[in-house]
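[job 0412] stage=complex_fold ligand=pantoate status=START
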Amino acid sequence: MTPSTHWIVGPGALGRLIALRLAERVPVRLVGRRPLPARQTLVSPEGKTREQSLAMARTDALPMEVPAVVHLTTKAHAAEAAHATLAAQLPSGVPLVLWQNGFACQPALTERHDGPVLCATTTEGAHVQADDRVIHAGHGHTFLGALDGSNADLARALARTLTDAGLPAEAVDDIRIRLWRKLAVNAAINPLVARFTIRNGQLRDRPFRPMVERSINEVAAILAAEGVTPPGGSGLEGWRELVWQVIEATAANRASMLQDVLAGRVTEHEAILAPLLAAASRHQLSAPCLARHLQDLRLRTQKLAEPPTTC
Ligand code: PAF
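[job 0412] stage=complex_fold status=DONE, emitting structure tokens
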């Protein structure tokens, strides 16, 4: 029998959005470390509510089923460990889709996975309201492709399935550039809103606006050296336009990094800032603002891991 079930591994907001949408078209199984209610509610950006039952599995007790595709939707810092657990139990050849932000786990997992690997980057917005309720906050667009441009037919087929399920998607042959573009936007916005506990739109005001500009200058210089172009293709102005457009469009949002900080979770700084700073050092560029953000967020993560002091 041909495998037909899409496994979604990592039942955060994006994972559950993908699962609930795909379940309208193909068999789906949501895989996570802890049990969740099988009956899940999705609230659409238009406010429509839809309840659906999803097949579930725990990562440590996977069923004897060969998935058609595995969508890895964990946070970036959890992706490699989640993949190691899965890989031990999967036959070779199962396609893997990496939905992580940043540019950290993608090259390593592309190398390590015993089967085709696609990367995805999306502007779909979602957040979790309860263990059984996901809010699809805003419609977006998804790009899919392999880092080396291979498996184009698979990327096209998956893009079609996602599009038919209500998540518009497109297969591309330059996913590496698109991952770096999203990383650039995340690097300019997320550390600042997380540090000052503000919504994205507040970055337009003083004293934050010059801070955003400084981050954009550093990001633009690093990416120019890496050969990554902004969507308009015109250097610093292109990056400024992209970042300020996103800030405008998401003015009312609390960015994912701020949500992580508020919830006491580890942030995705290693996937977003560390690859940029590694590129800066390769090209002998200095990036003091980005370096300071990374240092602050690393310090915060260390503190999260420390046991509370008792006296
Ligand atoms: O990380 C996020 O929340 C989003 O990618 C973005 C674009 C910064 C908007 O909040």
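The mean pLDDT is 95.
[job 0412] exit 0
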